[in-house]
Amino acid sequence: MKAIVYGGPGRKSWTDVHNPKIQNPGDAIVKVDTTTICGTDLHILKGDVPAVREGRILGHEGVGTVTEVGESVTSLKPGDRVIISCIKSCGHCANCKSGLYSHCLGDEGASGIGWVFGHLIDGTQAEYVRVPYAENSLHLLPAGVTDEQAVMLSDILPTGFEIGVQYGRVKPGDTVAVIGAGPVGLAAIATAGLYGAAAIIAVDLDANRLEKSRGFGATHVIASGDADWKKQLLALTDGQGVDVAIEAVGIPDTFTMCTEIVRPGGNVANVGVHGKPVQLHLEDLWIRNINISMGLVNANTTAMLLKLVAQKKLPAEKFATHHFRFDEFMDAYDTFARAAETNALKVVIRA
């Protein structure tokens, strides 16, 4: 089969590799019908994730068809259409039982790490993928949900909702600011209303993304390139600051922005993946009673979000802006990496 293979920082190739095989009784082999590219994949290619070794197949998002199952798998069968969760879950360790799938203690990949695809084991940017703990790491697709919608449930929708909205403690009536209107930021915007946010402010440098954010539920947009962006934002809160500030970029400046616009007693939810240290000004923040959260998605809300997508309550299909075939994978990477020029949100790659 062919797959996107990591060759070290700055290097990748669409090349021939061996087909995956069942290794454990709980495994399944899935033919990947649709996949996509994540900002985390770009971080890997920059060398920000040293645990990814040369020769690793990249990708952690996908929708496909089960072709083979291990002997202990009883709830899945060949022919089933499934979402591949970005997080594996053994389902029986202490962390999984508490819903902390991101720190699954199952020994597939590495004990205590739930994100294994394209990280510690071969990923989904391939024609076939082996899925460990298949009964807990795959989600059956109901009729009426398209691959284009479903692939957004592998990672970005659960990430924006869990790490942005849930960890940020959004509650009815809150004013929420999302710094960064990329795919995960838009996912937070799209799901903040589930918890009753009264106002959702999108903040970004990119005018196209700000305009798109309105279609995902943003009630206000602010261009962060404006010299008075902070003044504009505070004016929307009577000068008090927002109840929840969600960081969805992953650079020091945007994290600092969040700490500057949150009200006393408010919440800063860091969703972005940071490749560099961030200075935390505790000398200023402690007296303002600021709560700061961060984390890796657990994907324990995927089933619930899937129901909302199936009932047309979440606009998952709006994330897809560009479409490619598997033999155009390198073009897809180029388009996604130049999102500021191409206006790409999520690129959808089909077999």
Structure characterization notes:
The strands form 3 sheets. Strands 3, 4, 5, 6, 7, 14 and 15 form a 7-stranded mixed β-sheet that branches. Strands 10-9-8-11-12-13 form a 6-stranded parallel β-sheet, sandwiched between helices. By secondary structure, the chain is α/β, with parallel strands linked by helices. The mean pLDDT is 96. It has helices at 39-45, 94-97, 134-137, 147-150, 156-166, 183-192, 207-214, 229-235, 252-261, 282-285, 302-310, 329-337, 339-342; strands at residues 2-6, 12-16, 28-36, 62-69, 81-84, 128-131, 138-140, 175-179, 199-204, 220-223, 242-247, 262-270, 291-294, 320-325, 346-350.
What's the end-to-end separation, in Å?
12 Å
Number of continuous helical runs:
13
Written as H for each helix and E for each strand, in order along the chain, the element string is: EEEHEEHEHEHHEHEHEHEHEHEHEHHE
The number of distinct β-strands equals 15
Structural class: alpha/beta
Helix content: 25-40%
Main beta sheet, described?
A: 7 strands, mixed
Shape: globular
Unreliable stretches: none
Radius of gyration: 20 Å
**Strand residues, percent:** 15-25%
* Average pLDDT taken over every residue: 96
